[in-house]
Design a protein that fits this description.
Strand content: 5-15%
Number of strands: 3
Number of helices: 6
Structural class: mainly alpha
Order of helices and strands: HEHHEEHHH
Helix content: 55-70%
Radius of gyration: 19 Å
Length: about 120
């Protein structure tokens, strides 16, 4: 399941802070701040999707993530590779490296990462 852009923005704040109250979320937004009802609606949708849960403290809810950021983005990237690159990581890597104007240093860094992963897989 995927989050909308607005939900992702809230989720980023929750991932960053770990546990957060609604007032803290609202304070984290730049001006003009969204209405509390808007945030509450988005949080309810995120609960329904299984991304967040909360603990009650009196009348206040402290929200926390149910999904790790790395798991969410890993699944998202896999979906992009499947849907836009014929499920081919090589096509994705080719597109990424040729269209992003990476410097020689950045390409070397990527190569080191790939080489390290190859070594791990061989063990």
């Amino acid at each position: 399941m995927q989050l909308s852009k607005s939900e992702e923005q809230i989720m980023e704040l929750i991932w960053k802070q770990g546990k957060v109250f609604m007032k803290d979320l609202i304070e984290s937004f730049p001006e003009p701040k969204p209405a509390a009802t808007t945030i509450a609606t988005l949080l309810k949708r995120m609960q329904d999707k299984g991304f967040v849960a909360y603990t009650l403290f009196g009348n206040s809810r402290q929200y926390y993530p149910l999904v790790k950021k790395s798991d969410y983005f890993s699944k998202h990237v896999k979906g992009i590779i499947k849907n836009y690159f014929n499920n081919s990581p090589a096509q994705f890597a080719s597109f990424f490296t040729t269209t992003t104007n990476l410097s020689m240093e950045e390409l070397e860094d990527l190569k080191k990462i790939v080489d390290q992963e190859i070594k791990k897989k061989k063990k």
